[in-house]
Amino acid sequence: MMRVCHFVNFGAGGGRGRQGEGAGCRVRTAASITAITRQNRRQTNDHIPPTQNDKRTMDGSLLASVALLLMINVVDSITNSIVGPSLVFYVTEMGGSKEEYGMIMSASYLSGMPMMSFYGAWVDGNGNRYRAPYAASFVMGMIGSTIYFLASIARRGGGGGGGSELAVHFILMGRLITGMGSSGRTLAYAWVATAIPRDEQRNVLTLLSMTRTFGMILGPLLNALIAKVDAKLVVGSWIVIPITPNNTPGLILFVMEGLLLVSMCAFLKDPIPTAATKVGRFSLLSNNDDRANSSAASSSKARAIWNALVSFDVALPMANLFFMMCNFTFYQVAIPPVASNAYGWSTVDISNLLAAQAIVLFLAMNGAMALSMTGVPDSAMIAGGNLFFVVGGVMTYFWWKVDAAPWQFVLPVMLISLAYPFMGPANRSRYTKAVHGYPELENCHGIMQSIFNQMFMIGGFLTPNLVTKYGLLSPEQIALSNSPLVLSSWTWFIPITALLLIIGVVYEDVILGMNEMGLIRDKVEVELEEATKTESSALLAAKTVNRRRSSVVTINESLSTRYEMNRRASVEAYGMINPAETRDEISLRERLLEDKRVWEELAKFVAETGEEN
User: Fold this and answer.
1) What distance, in Å, lies between the first and last C-alpha atoms of the chain?
2) Which of 297, 334, 468, 527 has the fewest CB atoms within 10 Å of its CB?
3) CA geometry: angle at 490 spanning 487 and 493, to 5°?
4) 3-state secondary structure of 604
5) Cα–Cα distance between 499 and 374 in angstroms, integer?
């Protein structure tokens, strides 16, 4: 019997198909296979379910699930707005130092780094079902909040300095476990990406961002209610748990996590399965080919990743993300102690400031999204965001002092709030384009996006310890320095790093010739001017025809749950979802979805025609 095989030709830069042996092999182009497959589909009336690129409307049965995600966001933002302002007071009450406060602030980032990938892998591996991962995140949140609440018992039980040390360790452990649970909230990104039609995803993400802002606005009201709490919880005949304004957030968090767990079990609906989600990752290769390609890819993957990471176009967005997160986290850590020591603010006053900051963040996110869609280049957005850090950082160093007016304390906070939303999506877009520009990374996109997001998490993990150790001045240090400034000269780290990043963006744009901002004449433009109109048209037509089609592995990784979670989480601010996507990101995703559709039709054609032995 004659063996029949297929070779797919995608043009000069095309992807690789299965190559047959002998003269009996049939050669087909991607276009011809697509045409034949469409003809077969018309004849058999066997339609492939539409991809997210197709025009669809959201299933009404998912509205309850969307409402649940909105409720989760509100609850999370409320709890964060009462834990954040009170944490420094809680640590101090338990006998901790400002360095221990910084360590505890870092704890949630430390535990969240591995758990985010864990949740993504869980959903990818269980058929895109979300109930069990969400339940695990809520249970861990309940455990962590319980330990956080019971820190006061640990201090009383330990007695003296040992009790204080044990109590601080309780707070640290509580925040570690809570961080493991809260990292599961990024599952919302993956759920929206798989359950909501593409045209409606931005609306849903915007609603999620709005509810986060709404929750932070409600935070001060709840802080005002618990500000005068002074009670005791008696358990049995010998356990007495004091309930104070500082440990009450742990109790509130426990109750809210429990309510979310019950609500999730009642209302969360998994995305409606399609043919693609039922079979998981699609493939055109046999098991033997998979093993051979996997072995060959693993031998060169580390080298390809390293070469990309040390290249300027990939390293610059990673540096931008790292320092952006460092600078933003600086304020997240410094605001409560500075407001308390320099201005005598209470937790209610601090949460009022954070609520105002949340409003500015939300407005800036929408403004950045509008600018991006009007064609403002990523380079300009990144440079502009860093400029806010330069100005805000200088103001912070000179204006944050014990005799300053409150507006001098607030204005720099609002300026850096403008920086983050403008930089985030544009920087993510630059990184994604750079990675997709390396063909040797076609089986590494998931890993590269995870590495990118880890820069975000590492910045959040390292900064609190450095700020409390080197950046913040204690009241005693301020008195000895004979200066009203409440921050050390290490604060210059913010404007200096931002200025260096602006120089890096301009260098890449002008010297390396990226030219997104149009500061120099584009080389292609010059070449087209020298060519005739006919020659130019032929050149452009050939370039379009020979576009490199994304490989199956690239599509699988770039559309996976883990990839989407890391991509979205890399532009969060105070847990607020940034719905903005640049035009380049939208174009890239549409191209990936189109390539996926062609590969699926090819796989269906191969399966229908079969092989003759």
Assistant:
1) 5
2) 527
3) 120
4) helix
5) 26
Q: Give the C-alpha separation, 613 to 163, whole Å.
A: 77
Q: What are the extents of the domains in the chain?
A: 48-272, 310-520+551-581
Tokens of 470: 């080197």
The CATH architecture of the domain made up of 48-272 is: Up-down Bundle (1.20)
- Helix (H) / strand (E) element for 359: namely helix 347-373
pLDDT recorded at residue 200: 78
| DSSP-derived secondary structure for 137-200 | HHHHHHHHHHHHHTHHHHHHHH-HHHHHHHHHHHHHHHHHHHHHHHGGGGHHHHHHHHHS-HHH
The CA dihedral of 442, 445, 447, 449, to the nearest 10 degrees, is 160
CA angle (425, 430, 436) in 5-degree steps: 120
| pLDDT tens per residue across span 178-227 | 989 988 887 887 788 778 887 777 778 778 777 877 877 887 888 888 88
* Both tokens assigned to 340: 């308390």
SS3 letters for 406-454? HHHHHHHHHHHHHHHHHHHHHHHHHHHHHHHCCHHHCCCHHHHHHHHHH
Q: 400: closest CA among 327, 343, 324?
A: 343
Distance (Å, rounded) from C-alpha 600 to C-alpha 553?
Answer: 13
CATH homologous superfamily for 310-520+551-581?
MFS general substrate transporter like domains (1.20.1250.20)
- Show the tokens assigned to 405: 């007016």
- Are the C-beta atoms of residues 211 and 70 closer than 8 Å to each other? yes
CA distances from 441 to 60, 301, 391 (A): 39, 8, 38
More confident residue, 497 or 346: 497
Tokens representing residue 292 in the block: 């051979």
Spatial separation of the C-alpha atoms in residues 76 and 134, rounded to whole Å: 14
Specify whether the CB–CB gap between 284 and 18 falls below 8 A.
yes
The neighbouring-strand residues paired with 232 are 242
- pLDDT above 70 as % of the chain: 70
Contacts of 355 (CB under 8 A, 6+ apart): 81, 216, 217, 219, 220
